[in-house]
Amino acid sequence: MHNWKRWLPFYGPVSVKEVEFTFFGAKDQDGLYKIYDVKSVDIERVKNIADYIIEENEACNDDAKITMEYCDGYMHNSRCPVSKYDPQLEDFVDPPTCIQEEAAEANERKRKISMLETEDVLKECARNPQKANGQGTLDGMAQDSCIYNTKDLIVPQRGKPYRRNERMRGIEMRMGWQIGPKALAWSALGMAIISICIVAWGEQSKDWGNAMAFGQLLAAFLAIIITSARD
What we know:
By secondary structure, the protein is an alpha+beta fold. The protein has helices spanning 43-67, 99-119, 121-127, 181-205, 208-228; strands at residues 11-27, 33-40, 168-177. The chain has a three-stranded antiparallel β-sheet.
């Protein structure tokens, strides 16, 4: 955002959402990386996966009540993914997580998604950063954290081929005019002030032509600011 835009009233984030993207090309002259194929996180799919994990954990607990095979420490129920893992057959696959830990993460994911759907917490935190304290929004809401360790992050390098196709996580923020009751009230006040200026000028000088020209100039100046602020 251009520096002058930050001083405009009622201009700021109008849409903030989690996305996935892919790098495209090396760093440009501004030191930024081009990206493409930006897609919003499929929240319904994330919720369905979370529901499935929670249901699997409940089934595992029901089975444990019969077999007495509870997940505890190094012991796991036969339905737990950990008990099905064979390091000799899956040497290049990371060991799975206990179903109880996965269910706890799934419940936390659903809680964060509920915050997105009911409060649009990402947009509210972007508009008022103080609200982000303790929310952990950058740790991920509908997806994992979008904060990467720069030592582990592989980005395109100038003059070197880049053939990686993994999707990166990020947050897309769209800026614009925050239309609401307060903004409309201030807009009405601005129009009233322009009208008062026109009437005062016209009554004082009896030159209504110049008074109207002044009002049009002031309105045009405000229109230029509004139009230039569009992204």
